[in-house]
Amino acid sequence: MATIDFQIKYNSAMVAGTPSLHGSGVAFFGPTQGSSVQINSYQDSTYISNGNATTIQGQANNNKFIDGVYPSGMCTINSTGTEYTVGLSGIKSMECAVGIRFGHTSAVNTQNCQLRVYDRDNINSPASGVNTKVAEIVNFNGSTYNDQGSQGVASSVVGSGDAFWWGEEWPSEMCITQNYYQNSLGAQFYNGLETDAAVNGDQRLSAAGVTDNDLSVGGSGIIVPLLDSPGSGQRGLAEITDNTTGAGVVPGMMWPKWTQYVDSTKQTALMGSSNNFGNGHAAANIGNTYGGTGLHTHHTWCVALSASPLSLGSKEQYGIYVSLEYL
Predict the structure, then answer these.
(1) Is it the case that residue 248 has pLDDT exceeding 50?
(2) Are 187 and 290 in contact (CB under 8 A)?
(3) Which domain holds residue 120?
(4) Rg of the chain in Å (alpha carbons)
(5) How many CB atoms lie within 10 A of CB 248?
């Protein structure tokens, strides 16, 4: 039997404080519980709630997208009551807003994992009136799984999830060769560049005529790929955060996900001189960027979520849908 749970508040051993939301969801607020997020601004706090946010059951970590910072990928983290600003790859796995856990009675591999933002009716229809940014988080503050570092302190090691937010313009000069991630089945997941007419190509968003409506994950335009077989608490990805140079990477060791779309000539400028892995989408390397390969009864993905309303009022036709294959 297979199950998928949404979790929050991991500790340094990646054990969730809330192991299942049990049908509840998350609500995005302003600085305090229940306060509104201003139009075209992003949330300052994240909580567990029912569908219309009238019942609050606890607080989640807050991962807030910072607009107008080049390149896309900066955010404000609040997991202990103290905020700090860091690039996406510096968020520790335990500081993610939401965790996704797949469970099975037998040990299995997972592949083709996809996250969608939708209108809670049709998974191919985008949510309306909200811009959503999503990023996969993989960072144990070092290449050892047991070292998450001190909570609330920015990691000094470049992580291996996403470098840019899905749903935000990706910098053209950093993505010279491609602006997509290709998973182990060959499916390609695109995100628009700053030079494109629209970031999200779903026609329904552009047809709505709302300014910046396309700067969002959602519908059939932007689907977020997640890594293969991360293992329980991401233990299957423990070696991803190696931060040596390309020449020092152990053969067969997974390369960071972002090496597929951050051009090899730009990795040093973005990630620092000790974090240039090279061309992750090259035929010889792409197999190292898909994720883990181990059989586990549980697999955990960590994601950063940030949302901004485009109009007044609660946004209840808004949900996250996760699909995957297991074998």
Answers:
(1) no
(2) no
(3) 2-326
(4) 18
(5) 11
